[in-house]
Amino acid sequence: MKRFLPLVTLFISSFVFAQTPCINGTAGQYPCEGLDLMSRITLNTFGSDRGNDSWGWTDPQDGKEYAIMGLGNGTAFVDITDPVNPIYLGKLPTHTDSSTWRDIKVYNNYAFIVSEASGHGMQVFDLTRLRSVSNAPETFTEDAHYNGFGHCHNLVINEETGFAYAVGTSTFGGGPHFVNIQNPLSPTAAGGFGSDNYCHDAQVVIYDGPDADYAGREIFFGSNEDRVSIVDVTDKNNPIGISNGFYGSIEYTHQGWLTEDKRYFIIGDELDESAFGFNTRTIIFDVSDLDNPVVHFEYEADQEAIDHNGYVLGNDFYLSSYRAGLRILDISDIENGNMAETKYFDTYPGSDSANFDGAWSVYPFFASGNIVISDINRGLFIVRDALLGLNEATVSSFALYPNPAKNIVTVSSKIDPLEKIEVFNVLGQKVMDLNFVNTLSENIDISKLQTGMYVLKINASTTKRLLVD
User: Fold this and answer.
1) pTM above the 0.90 mark?
2) What residue ranges in 181-261 does DSSP mark as E strands?
3) What highest taxon heads this organism's lineage (predicted)?
4) Could you read off the pLDDT of 270-324 as tens digits, one per residue?
5) Which domains does the chain have, with CATH numbers?
6) Pairing of strands 35-41, 17-20
7) Residue 110 in 3-state DSSP?
8) DSSP state for residue 203 in the 8-state scheme
9) Which of these, 36, 22, 137, 18, lies nearest to 84 by C-alpha position?
10) Contact 465, 454 (CB under 8 A)
11) How many other C-beta atoms are found inside a 10 Å radius of the C-beta of residue 213?
12) Coil, strand or helix: which one is 289?
């Protein structure tokens, strides 16, 4: 969000909601397509009046997954290994004052946190401490602190090199402020680049894209208010500006992310919807020649909402789109100028207008398929692909009742004999495997299943959702 935008009107609920499938276009009160709601933790639970950024950490020791969410007054840590029953482990309070803006990135099992709050600097938190929380939720303390800058809008980390890039500080004209974090508990100033305008957000990579001139170099792709800024930051003592990319109807170049082949840079302009009346607009740059980035095409969605943070995973672009929630776009044909929305989960039902409420950010990089959405007004959402990626049969000879069920569920058919029933939990794990011969009806004992949502796969062809209560 742009630094000088007014505070949004906030909504706080005292309830925590869990596991609701996306059926007929809604998951409870939330419009959706192809994404089930696993759970939601409200701002009230976190003891805050606003949400902002989010990121994630997977413990290399045991594979547990943790959501990290920025709040107005600190940073929350949540174990989402079981996405239906997330555990709020605790909060690291802000270093100074509360702020609308907070940003988190992770390197080497440490979280690095910045904020627009005056004098905040960069907090460092040892994430391995989350393994031994005994009395959740705890109030954590930071493990280290970097005070080479005060307020900071955003933080970028190149995990391959162990350097952090703080952007939007009062140093280097708001351009990237380099910090060596190879020893996370002893961050060290490493220079900066102040020759190309204020930087709002960025991505930094060891370049392995199509431009052979820069192979193996550390390249900074900045979203710099009115331009895309490409900088070679390999030599921290001598960063070199490579080029700028411009596009039409610029209002505020906010954030961007590279496709995995490094050929395209997908960016959003945060204020063009309200300034020019576009629907949600995404600009795709061809950066195959880093010396000459050019607009490849623009994509305009059906919604009026303002786009915020977007990330690429494979052939999908995950876009937090404020009042329109999370939108997932297929970019497999981006070369031919085509993108198409395939799934969505709207965390702000009732309006998709161009206002600063709703989904601030998304973290789609968990191996399990868990997707974290941080919402300004409604807290932390965990969603994932509709169970097993299967759609419930609209026409089927099989009936399932009662549903929800508690101890026994009956599966029956007037036509097709039951041969096999497989039951899968929300993680896609098979928890029951039953075989039958010449039967049209069976009572299935589900008394040992935990409360939640399951999928029954019948005769390897028909899928039915089952709620166990």
Assistant:
1) no
2) 188-192, 201-206, 218-223, 228-232, 240-245, 253-258
3) Bacteria
4) 999 999 999 999 999 999 999 999 999 999 999 999 999 999 999 999 999 999 9
5) 17-389 (2.130.10.10), 398-468 (2.60.40.3080)
6) antiparallel
7) strand
8) E
9) 18
10) yes
11) 10
12) coil
